[in-house]
Amino acid sequence: MTAMVPPTQPIQAPSIDQGESTAVAGQLVELAAQLTVRLRLDVAYDGTDFSGWASQPGRRTVQSSLEEALAMVLRIPQPKLTVAGRTDAGVHARGQVCHVDLPHDALGAGGPRALTRRLARLLPTDLRVVCIAPVPDNFDARFSAVWRRYAYRVCDNPAAADPLTRNHVLVWPRHLDEKAMNAAAQHLLGEHDFAAFCKRRQGATTIRTLRELAWSREGDSLTARVIADAFCQRMVRSLVGCLIAVGERRQLVDWPLEVLSALRRDPGVFVVPARGLALEEVGYPGNTELGTRAWDARAVRGPKEIRADACGVSDLRPRTQT
């Protein structure tokens, strides 16, 4: 006997009224807006006419100028930048690094390379974004950095000072003995409490690891190369001023070590002007070590300080903002 097969019935699609359709579309738009990408920006600027990096009401700063430009170019609310080192007023940078989280769809078809070109047309001539590249979610421009390199430039022959570099080189009126300064600098290398060379901040540590502090001379021009895991405020300029006192024979070679050991500001230490100082480079570990480095840096500096406070390339992957 042949089995009876019930007649097939057409499948009815569930009905969705216009209100439900609009709600679903709104949710998709909201979800897309939450997808962000983290970008690394390599930045250079002449600090002469800036009141430092950090935003300040009523003042022209690097951070506010760059954030405003990003908002205008991308037509988004003003984003927040995180920077490797907050330079003071008048300090320059060739290798500053910051990161920003942007809506993934705000970049458009051209991606980071097109954004670099668009910013170049809008930014003032004393500020440039040299390179933009996507980075992993755990990249942190400040806490992932393993070292910062500064240079301080001095001319110790006023008659030979180049007028074209007057905003980038300190002109010193007396000859400096770079050999004596290098001998004194050797006593300061390593991990120490640099409170004697820093401007105090409530709840912030002044323990730093100074990797390199060395002077080189070319004719009448001297350059101090200074590398450390991080720097507290005015630390480089205080170190340079301390060594200049040795270089012009006002102090003995052992004096900077005495200043360091005292753990308090010494009135004999001259904080040199900002114009000779430039942030040249920031060093980062490989992508697999970024998260560990950021965690370690936060742990070392402590929660109070955290509150007070060439491009790496990765896949351009969206992420959900938290």
Describe this structure in words.
This protein is elongated. The chain has 7 helices and 11 strands. 30% of the residues are buried. It has 2 domains: 148 residues, Alpha-Beta Plaits; 134 residues, Alpha-Beta Plaits (2-Layer Sandwich). The chain is α+β, with helices and mostly antiparallel strands. Strands 1, 2, 3, 4, 5, 6, 7, 8, 9, 10 and 11 form an 11-stranded mixed β-sheet that branches. A hairpin with an 8-residue loop joins strand 2 and strand 3.
- For the terminal residues, how far apart are their CA atoms? 65 Å
Radius of gyration, Cα only, in angstroms? Answer: 27 Å
Q: Low-confidence spans: pLDDT under 50, at least 5 residues?
A: 303-310, 312-322
- CATH superfamily assignment of the largest domain? Pseudouridine synthase I, catalytic domain, N-terminal subdomain
Question: What's the total number of strands?
Answer: 11
Round the mean pLDDT to the nearest integer and report it.
Answer: 86
Question: How is the biggest beta sheet arranged?
Answer: 11 strands, mixed
The total domain count is 2
Order of helices and strands: HEHEEHEEEHEEEHHEHE
Structural class: alpha+beta
Please state roughly what percent of the residues sit in beta strands, choosing from under 5%, 5-15%, 15-25%, 25-35%, 35-45% or over 45%: 15-25%
Please give the CATH architecture of the largest domain.
Answer: 2-Layer Sandwich
The CATH topology of the largest domain is given as: Alpha-Beta Plaits
Coarse shape = elongated
- The percent of residues in helical segments reads 25-40%
